[in-house]
Specification:
335 residues, alpha+beta, Thrombin, subunit H, six-stranded antiparallel barrel, six-stranded antiparallel β-barrel, rod-shaped
């Protein structure tokens, strides 16, 4: 049992506690409100300081877990990005291949050429030729020597040699290449030679008096049996004329339709059309990069020569059928 004094002290503490509770229930207003506020501020500051000091230690576990999760997410996102990039590159390549094949099919369908599709797998000089490529089709695919090679833009070259599964193609821009060409519309013929540059060809007219203008398009007039060049294949477009009409040597600079630096899908013409497609395979005039000039280039005498050629243009048009008929035996003797 507690002593009397002890019981008295407990009674005083109980009364005091009840007093404080009653005062606090009145809204915190009372003689101890300021003391309690000071204590709360002191304790709050101590709690904030303790949290600042010990939070790195207490949060180390959650930080490490978060870092592992973020690292895993970064790895997954990086792997997904690489996969998407590879897929995009593949889709881009497939789109380019589809466009190249579509252009090739259009050329073949318009000109009625029978061909074997192939892909360029290597590029490099062979024997005496500097501009050659290797394609992934050979004798097993029906490819033979001296067959024309085309793409969706026009003539690319001819087959130089074959193996069972590959073929070597000489490009028309090679210095050793020569192709019989014909000006679309007028039917004037000449020899298209490679210059060693992938951007230019030279067209030497057989008739020094023939009319050739900047913007004229050239096509092959064909070889006997369609080898090495089938008839009617687009070659290129005249970008410059050197020399005046009547000179012994008159040459035109030609930009090839086919871009030799971007060859991918090509076609090897295994059978030429029964009839010469003439100019039907050429793109529309609006699609050509250069519009024919109204008069041929004639140097200092261009003004006088233009009127003379304008007078001669009408009879030349009436004689066009005879010139085309006369060109047939020339095609048979070509190469």
């Amino acid at each position: 049992m507690f002593s009397r004094r002890t019981r008295f002290l407990l009674a005083i503490l109980v009364v005091a506690s009840l007093t404080f509770v009653i005062l606090d229930l009145r809204g915190g207003e009372g003689p101890f409100a300021s003391v309690r506020a000071v204590g709360a501020n002191v304790l709050g500051g101590l709690e904030r300081a303790a949290a600042t000091v010990f939070s790195p230690i207490t949060g180390a576990g959650s930080w490490w877990s978060t870092m592992r999760d973020q690292s895993g997410q970064i790895t997954d996102l990086t792997r997904e990005k690489q996969a998407l990039r590879s897929e995009l590159e593949q889709l881009t390549n497939d789109k380019a291949r589809a466009a190249a094949l579509d252009g090739l099919l259009k050329v073949a369908s318009v000109g009625q050429y029978r061909f074997v599709p192939a892909e360029v797998i290597a590029i490099g000089p062979v024997q005496d030729f500097s501009w050659t490529v290797t394609i992934d089709a050979g004798r097993n695919d029906g490819i033979e020597q001296d067959m024309s090679v085309i793409n969706g833009a026009g003539l690319v070259g001819r087959v130089l040699k074959t193996t069972a599964s590959t073929s070597t193609v000489v490009l028309i821009v090679d210095q050793g290449s020569a192709v019989g060409g014909r000006i679309a519309g007028t039917g004037e013929i000449g020899i298209v030679s490679g210059t060693g540059s992938q951007e230019t060809l030279e067209f030497e007219l057989l008739d020094p008096l023939a009319d050739v203008r900047v913007g004229d398009a050239l096509v092959t007039f064909g070889s006997k049996g369609g080898r090495p060049y089938a008839p009617g294949l687009p070659i290129g477009q005249v970008v410059e004329v050197q020399g005046k009409g009547g000179q012994l040597t008159r040459t035109a600079i030609v930009a090839p339709f086919a871009d030799m630096s971007q060859l991918s899908i090509v076609g090897v013409v295994t059978k030429p059309p029964r009839e010469d497609p003439r100019d039907s395979v050429l793109p529309a005039l609006d699609d050509l990069s250069i519009v024919p000039t109204p008069a041929p280039l004639g140097g200092a005498d261009e003004g006088a020569g233009a009127s003379d050629e304008a007078v001669d243009s009408e009879p030349a048009a009436t004689q066009a059928p005879e010139e085309e008929t006369a060109a047939v035996p020339v095609e048979e003797d070509e190469q």
